[in-house]
Amino acid sequence: MKTVQSIFRQPICLSNKLCFRSYSTKLQEAPSSWKAMLNIKYVYEHAGEIHQNCIDRNMHKVAETLPKIKNLYEELNIVRNRLAPQVREKNRITKSIKSSKDMQHRNSLVTEAKNIKTEIDSTEKIASDIQKKLYHYCLSLPNSTLPSVPIGSEDNAICVATIGEEKKLNNCTKDHLELSGNDIDLLSASETSGHAFCYVKGEVAELEMALINYAIDFSKLRGWSLVIPPTVVRTDVALACGFQPRDEQGEQIYQLEDQKESSSPKQCLIGTAEISLASLGYKQTFHDLKEKRVVGVSRSYRREAGARGRDTKGLYRLHEFTKVELFAWTHPSQSSRVFEDIVKLQTDFAQSLGLSARVLNMPTQELGAPAAQKYDIEAWMPSRANFGEISSTSNCLDYQSRRLLTRYKNPNDTGFVHTLNGTAAAIPRLIIALLENHQQLDGTVVLPQCLVPYLKKERLFVKTKNTCFR
């Protein structure tokens, strides 16, 4: 598979409006000071490779824009070639005006200057309109894809490693809802918030807090600095991070409406802490950068929680949940190593929890626009009779940094950083895996030793539960 290099090289400054893209071809605008860096010439010269990359990622509507990009680029060159002699003529006339001492001749030159300026303004307007369309189409293009990524749908994922041993449970296996009783209260939440929301109570709430703290401590011991990020960000910054909905209506993003300052960019709730962590680098330059790593914990919000059924039962797919996220900025020469470090952290974390899991090299259709490479870790979940995703790691190369204008400046070189993100702990799904895989015949759940210091107990659901709020 051919690798498409990054398309972001040169700045294109538009108006004070931001043109941002989802996977659709509908142009949207929002006030912003953000200006991405695009190399449209590269796109024109490598249109075939980029078109195939879009097809491999199942982004057919975006792929259809490549012929338009080529035609617009050629039109822009024609217009610029027409503009150049006009500018030269204007400069000649301006110089003549300055040197002319004859008033009548001077007035004639001034008239010529006004006429040529009108022609220039018209030509520049045409060039500007073409440039905006080019920007609009090029901004929708996905990142390059690394050669090791398999092509196709999720079925083509390649298992690159396994963790632990598959649990052998008898026919009395209960799912996480049966084990927890009313500690996972979907009914009350559905009445107050709607489908796919949840009250987590009692010992399951204690388990959630233990997992959060354990994931943070686990990451900090490996050099990740703790950050508690905001859960509300500007919509333009979220989209600059590449957090793009998979549908044309943007149904995965909770957008905040009725803002008093209508001239300001709209805001939205984050779908993952990756967005607000990446935004720490917005318009920043890191000096003497080798790598910078942070771990953040936040609530995450997804509008689309999936259809009801066994595969989305209980905690598996919620509109609101807690996630501990890893984010790194690196020198381009270090991103492959940092990617491996994140995957190693995730596999060690899953192993410490006594889970049976597999590491998958995800195919092109599962990457999302910003990622050049993505590994998922899936844990065995008895209630699903299948594996379920508990974490992922993505190497975004300089795709996000060129949109967020995040640079590095070292003594020997300078450029745009590479960004990587990974899940340290997707709390609800870890709860599913822990409860169901560590359950006992008497209905209790034996905790992995790493969590015992956090919960001050070795088993859950042993004694009669407190009936408060049940």
UniProtKB/TrEMBL annotation:
L-serine binds at T272, R302, E325, N421. It comes from the Eukaryota. The record marks T423 as: Important for serine binding. GO terms for biological process: mitochondrial seryl-tRNA aminoacylation. The keyword Isomerase does not apply. Its EC number is 6.1.1.11. GO terms for cellular component: mitochondrion. Residues 293-448 form the Aminoacyl-transfer RNA synthetases class-II family profile domain. ATP binds at R302, R303, E304, E389, I390, S391, S392. GO terms for molecular function: ATP binding; serine-tRNA ligase activity. Keywords: Aminoacyl-tRNA synthetase, ATP-binding, Ligase, Nucleotide-binding. Gene3D superfamilies: Bira Bifunctional Protein, Domain 2, Serine-tRNA synthetase, tRNA binding domain. InterPro entries: aa-tRNA-synt_IIb, aa-tRNA-synth_II, aa-tRNA-synth_II/BPL/LPL, Ser-tRNA-ligase_type_1, Ser-tRNA-synth_1_N, SerRS_1_N_sf, tRNA-bd_arm. It holds the Pfam family tRNA-synt_2b. NCBIfam families: serS. This is serine--tRNA ligase.
